[in-house]
Design a protein that fits this description.
binds uracil; 9-stranded mixed sheet; 4 helices; elongated; two-stranded antiparallel ribbon; 216 residues; alpha+beta
Length: 216
């Protein structure tokens, strides 16, 4: 059940909410699956790495979680780590990724030098990157040296955080996503580990789609 092997025959499960498999076939009615992974560095957030021969987040899922149609909802660079949502629910993924929704994504970023107030002001104003104006982003220091930053983005341009810091002569050494909207990375997941979303997390995802407020 939900990727775990169940050995108690008396166990009762809610078949609407749990993923129940026997001999590799799914028995429960839940149409879609929703998985959070702590993406390790070195794998790509794509469902198909055949062209480039690279390993994907779907490739490294445990065998018991794999099923047809799974893909990551949103991108992280190959060398970035942290929260990736993997699902087979295309409509939900579309909503999460829609630029109109401006869903916040939170990252912890390690830099090769401290960021200064001017950098922070440019993040908060919405900086120009190759003539394209970014939406305002939040930035705060996570350590007294200001070499560790918490950054909240409302959009996902190509290599956005790396480019934003590069504009201010800082290099991103590590980038770890900890949150997508209200969905937080489970801190107990080691790099490469994954688990199904719990009911509450799933509700957050589903409410975000139809609701007035983008809570995800
Ligand atoms: N910004 C980046 O530069 N890389 C990521 O993986 C995510 C945001």
């Amino acid at each position: 059940m939900n990727g775990q092997c169940i050995r108690q025959p008396e166990l009762r499960a809610d078949t609407e909410k749990s993923e129940i498999c026997a001999n590799g076939s799914r028995l429960s009615k839940n149409r879609f699956v929703y998985i959070m992974m702590n993406k390790p560095a070195g794998v790509i957030s794509s469902s198909d790495g055949r062209k480039t021969g690279e390993k994907t987040v779907v490739d490294i899922l445990p065998q018991s979680m794999k099923r047809r149609g799974l893909f990551p909802a949103g991108r992280l660079d190959k060398d970035s780590t942290g929260l990736v949502l993997i699902t087979d629910d295309g409509a939900l993924a579309h909503d999460i990724l829609s630029p109109k929704k401006h869903i916040d994504k939170t990252y912890i970023v390690r830099l090769d030098r401290p960021f200064d107030d001017e950098t922070a002001a440019d993040f908060e104003r919405g900086m120009l990157l190759c003539d394209e104006k970014c939406l305002p982003a939040e930035i705060s220091a996570e350590n007294p040296e200001r070499t560790l930053a918490r950054v909240v983005l409302r959009q996902g341009m190509y290599h956005q955080i790396k480019r934003m810091f590069k504009k201010h002569s800082a290099q991103v050494l590590e980038l770890h996503r900890v949150k997508m909207g209200a969905l937080e990375l489970d801190p107990s997941l080691l790099p490469g580990e994954a688990r199904y979303l719990c009911e509450k997390e799933l509700e957050l995802l589903k409410t975000a789609r139809g609701g007035e407020h983008n809570i995800l």
